[in-house]
Fold this protein.
Amino acid sequence: MAADVAPVVRVRPATPDRWDDLRVLLAPRGEGSDACWCLAWRLPSGEFGRMPGPDREDRLRAMVDGGPPPGVLAYVDDEPAGWCNVGPRAAMERLVRSTTIHAVDDLPVWSVVCFVVRTGYRRQGLAEELLHGAVEFAGSYGAPALEGYPVDTGGARLSTALAYVGTTGMFERAGFRRVAGTDATSAGRPRWVMRRDLAGGAGG
């Protein structure tokens, strides 16, 4: 393939047949077993803290198998390269109980809570591709709106570890608007509730 040919990026739901691809992105490196498995926002803090790594993996696997998928995967030339954790806000136990990110209203919104981009694929716009995929995914399940809680960088460049929630600029480019401030911060920078209204779909 010629060097100037752009890679093909596809975003797909994390269905059971894609479990191995999701595992490539979320499994711990080396012998450690304390990986988050992207459950920190989906479980009450106490339960999450007491749960050993292998049990976290099993819990996420059960969510994938039970559906609806707990997020979307990005593929670059068919290689798993990124992940976005998205689902109904009501299913994000830590978010529901949060004292720093409050619900704006009673609308049954869906929420984007984190992005994971594999080493070697970062700073290539993949998180933004995932966000667009999350919008389509939430709409296909009839979500009335999709929210995110990104950080306002103020023009500063944040590390990947601190920008896992996304940035306000990225969300604005994807059609989201700021609807409320929060008491949450990342790297000392404020985070916002940002929302994009969706037409909804026929369901998944």
